[in-house]
Amino acid sequence: MSQSTINPDDIGNAYDTITHLWQREGFNRNNGIEAHKRAINFTDNRGNALDVGCGCTGRFIDLLQTEGFSVEGVDISTKMIDLARQRHPEVTFHHQDICEWEIENRYDFITAWDSIWHIPLEQQKPVLTKLVNSLNTGGILIFSFGGTTEPSENIDDFMGPEVYYSSLGTNGFLALLMKLGCLAMHLEYDQYPELHTYLIVKKLTLSDE
Fold first, then answer.
1. Which end of the chain is more exposed for a tag (fewer CB within 10 A), N or C?
2. Percent with pLDDT over 90 in the chain
3. What order do you get walking across the sheet with 107-112 strand by strand?
4. Domain Methyltransferase: where (predicted)?
């Protein structure tokens, strides 16, 4: 699979074949939880929340519901969505490509943990812009990415199938989100020296600008 042929449907198809990795006994359901608790602490309101690339574990949905949010999920993998619906039949799930999906609702909290790093590099700016525009004023966005020094893209098969990754780089994401009127609340290389990084930003109110 070459980078030139990568599209989001390829990612959905790849994840359809490896849902067992998240269902096996011993899966770490605490992965990302402390980061999300930190992000939730920055919220002004706890209304609607969106889990982008929600997968099938439901761990972030469980946390957000416990914290008073009304949660929706979106994922491009058919099997992930099917499993998510079985786990949380009361939640609205969208089987959509985040690059193409026209988001209608507005949210106080959006998470995109280990998900949008799979979208094409040229879609990083449009998708981040879309997510910020879908936040209410004072809303929080948390997402993980590859903390590279420059924009990059690569293919990795460590999970089994070949899977594509892209990143604007740490400074690239920070510059974009500041331009979009966000305040960086927390940045962490949480698996250093690996490049796994997450960022929490807040959509500023007029009085904050």
1. C
2. 73
3. 92-95, 70-75, 48-52, 107-112, 135-146, 196-203, 182-188
4. 50-139
